[in-house]
Specification:
Elements (H helix, E strand, L loop, with lengths): L1 H43 L3 H6 L12 H7 L3 H32 L6 H13 L4 H10 L17 H12 L4 H8 L4 H12 L1 H17 L2 H6 L9 H11 L15 H6 L3 H31 L7
Helix pairs in contact: 1-14, 3-14, 4-7, 4-10, 4-12, 10-14, 12-14
Pfam families: BPD_transp_1
Family: Belongs to the binding-protein-dependent transport system permease family.
Membrane topology: Multi-pass membrane protein
């Protein structure tokens, strides 16, 4: 009896020790994960001249909103925000739907060209025509200075198609066979059976596509930089960052400035952090709503029945 009690006590101690180690480990992971975000937020809210001194961690030494005022005083920012939002919404919907349709086709066992098209699709992930041929293609398609250049070139993505197809391959094929027996055609099977079952992977792909559209600025620089009506938020923020005077961080350049003038100086570091916060917030707002599906989608292929 005494031996059983001793064994039980040791087991409880081992369990508590293990739980303590896990809690400490997860706490450290949380701190490491949150610190960069809190540091960026603190620097973006800190007075610019004081930022140059360094040593800011998770709390601003001299709180100010001047860095954000510097960003939002640009007129094109609203236009860029509208264009970025619209291209993100439209591009995500069309991108996810197109990827799902192609993935469903390639997952069909009765599709004769399945292996050939799958191989061609994979090859596009390893080989690219390059920047100049890509620009010439966009020019010949008449997409220069056009809103469609944000949507059409990236409407189908090979990586996303492979992810969705892998998920569809894991679904019981008997579902499709039963639907065919009941008289359903291919479109009905795809729309009413496959798509509802693919919510986790579609949410994952949607997040990837949305983040890509939201953070994109290079296509605006290449194709629509001469049209202010087609500018995007990231492109405008990039221009603000480039236009920020690097000389404002030079101590010699600030010696002759008064106290009030020093307070109005905005350092590139402060602008950079404020821009980072502006671009991060929309993603942080959307992510909690798709987190459940995103976690499920990332486990595709992890378990085989």
């Amino acid at each position: 009896m005494a031996n059983k009690m001793t064994t039980f006590s040791r087991t409880k101690i081992n369990e508590r020790t293990f739980d303590t180690v896990i809690y400490v480990y997860l706490t450290l992971i949380t701190i490491v994960t949150l610190y960069p975000f809190l540091n960026v937020l603190a620097v973006s809210l800190n007075e610019s001249v004081d930022t140059v001194k360094g040593g800011i961690h998770i709390w601003p030494r001299e709180f100010t909103l001047d860095n954000y005022k510097e960003i939002f005083k640009y007129d094109n920012l609203v236009t860029g925000f509208i264009n970025s939002t619209s291209r993100t919404v439209i591009g995500t919907i069309l991108g996810v739907l197109s990827s799902a349709m192609v993935a469903y086709t390639l997952s069909r066992a009765d599709f004769q060209g399945r292996k050939l098209f799958s191989t061609i699709l994979v090859l596009t992930m390893y080989f690219s025509g390059g920047l100049i041929p890509g620009y010439m293609l966009i020019r010949d398609l008449g997409l220069i200075n056009s809103y469609y250049v944000y949507i059409i070139p990236g409407i189908v993505n090979a990586f996303n198609i492979i992810i969705v197809r892998s998920f569809i391959d894991g679904l019981p094929y008997s579902l499709q066979e039963s639907a065919k027996i009941d008289g359903a055609n291919d479109f009905t099977i795809f729309w009413k059976i496959i798509l509802p079952l693919c919510k986790p992977v579609l949410a994952t792909v949607a997040l990837f596509v949305a983040v890509g559209h939201w953070n994109s600025w290079f296509d605006t620089y290449l194709y629509n930089s001469m049209n202010e009506g087609l500018t995007t938020l990231q492109y405008e923020l990039m221009k603000i960052l480039q236009n920020t005077s690097m000389g404002s961080t030079n101590p010699d350049a600030m010696k002759g400035l008064s106290t009030e003038q020093l307070k109005s100086v905005v350092s590139p570091e402060s602008i950079k952090m404020a821009i980072s916060m502006v671009t991060i917030v929309p993603i942080l707002v959307v992510y909690p709503f798709v987190q459940k599906y995103f976690v499920q989608g990332m486990t595709i292929g992890a378990v085989k029945s």
